[in-house]
Every structure is written in structure tokens, then in C-alpha cells.
From TrEMBL:
The lineage of its organism: Bacteria, Bacillati, Actinomycetota, Actinomycetes, Pseudonocardiales. Residues 12-125 form the TIR domain. GO terms for biological process: signal transduction. This is TIR domain-containing protein.
Amino acid sequence: MLGPGQQYDLAVSFAGAQRALARQFARECESLGLVVFFDENVTEEMWGRDFITEFRRVYGGELARYVVPFLSVDYFNSGYPMDEFYSATAYAIQRGDDPYVLPITVGDVEIPEKLLRSSIGYLRSEDYSVEQLAHIAAKRVKGSGDGAAAPAPTPIPALPLPKVPPADFSALGTLESGLITLGERFHQAKSSLARFGYTCHVRTGDSSLEVRVESRGRRVYGLKVQLEDRLGGDRLTMSRGWPDRPGSGINAWAAVEWDATTGEGRFRFSDFGRTTPNRLLSADELFDLLWQNVIEIIEQTHGSRA
């Protein structure tokens, strides 16, 4: 039973790298009759609104009964998920003994004690199917309808697991999720260039992303990202910089590898013309690298604008 003013049984919080997992969890919960806050469901409602302010109302206890964060290495390194987490934990303190934050961990992540006490029970995504997690969530929501605080889940000891990809790991799924994240991040960032006299156009497709930065109608930067396998393996191929014809030549790509440290698929980025980070990147980190290239091109060419 929803409380006064509450609209959602659960609010799902996640980093971009876990979007596919969070989406599946949200859909499973909805199939069990729960009302779930998931950002993709409120795109039209958020049109023109300050999503940070609105999301704080959701995760801060005003609109949701519980918050389910998918805690990962990416989560603790991402600004927006951490803002949601801070809002949720601040309200959890006010709420007292009735649990509000129901954490699920993804991969081999160390949760800082200052953010979540080690005595707080959590579930490991590797120990359950998504369907099982949804049923556990539904049981918690429906079991608290009488207003009584449900018992906290028993902390699950971290058992050593083989550092190999799980059976349900999909390189293609990671690429698709990564392409979606890149599109979202470019859409969020494009307006920030307007104050400097640049216009950023972003177009997304089922298997492609195109970005074009212009100044007074002149193209300054172009990027085309394509999900394809014509080079002998699934990867995101890229034509970036200022090619004469967008997409006329591939000069970078990102291939998926299983990261045993984080317990998830990540991207190995290769740039044919420059030194690249010798590490695996999350989708958000890949965006940061591409966006930095945009900034570098603008700074290099700014003084030559007609």
C-alpha cells in the first residue's frame, strides 16, 4: 500500500553500464504488479523539467516506498547515481528501523563503509536470476502493506567465485547497452556547448550514433559510431574527428572484454592515431574519452573560425 503522496512501490537506481540489468529487473517487477520508477518510463513527463530536482523527490522518499540501487564500481564513480543514492540514504536515516534502501551488488564491488554500513543486508546479483530478484522485491513490498517493518535481509557472505564470464554474459548485449549510454550522455551534454557558440546535433538509431558539432553552420567535429561485425567480431566502430565525409573511414573502435575485476563486460578502446588508455572502460568512461576529444578539437580550431 502506497503512503500519502507516494506514486511508486520501487525506484530503481543504477549506472549506465547496468542499464540492461536494471531494465530487466524493472520489467519483471512490473509484471508482478509493482509500480516501478525507471527513468525510461518518464521521458515525456520529464520534458522541460529539472530531472535532478525531480529525481531527488523520487529517491528522497517523497514519491517512492523503497529504493533499489544496483551498486557497482561504475555506480560509485558516476555522478547521477550517487546523487540518487545520497538522497535515498538521507531519507533512510530519517525513516529509522523501517528499511528504505534495498541494495543489490553487481560484480566485485567494495562498498565504502561511510556510504553503507557493512551490517546492512544486501543481495548479490550473481546469486539470483533477475526473476528471483523481482519476486523477492515483490514479497518485500506486499509484505509491508500492514505498515510493519519487514525484517532486514540476512547479509550474504561474499563467496569466492571463478573470475570467468557467467553463462548469461553477452558481448552483443554490452555493446547495445553501451551504445544507448553513449547516446544518452551526448544528448545530456550537447547543450553545454551553446554558450561558446557551438551547436551539437545528436542522432541515434538502433545500431548507430551520429554526433555533429557546428560553429556558424560550419562543421567542426563529426563522430559516427556503428555497431557492426564486419571486421571479424562484434564491436563499436568509429569515424571521429573531422573527416571529409562522416563515416568515410574508421579510425577507432571499442571491443568488449569480460572484466574479472568488476564482474562485467567493459570496453577496450583502440584509436588508430593516438595512444589510448591501457585499461578496460565502462560506457560512461568511454563517453568521457570521446567528449574530451570534442573539447580538444574545439580548443584547437576555435581561433580559426571564420
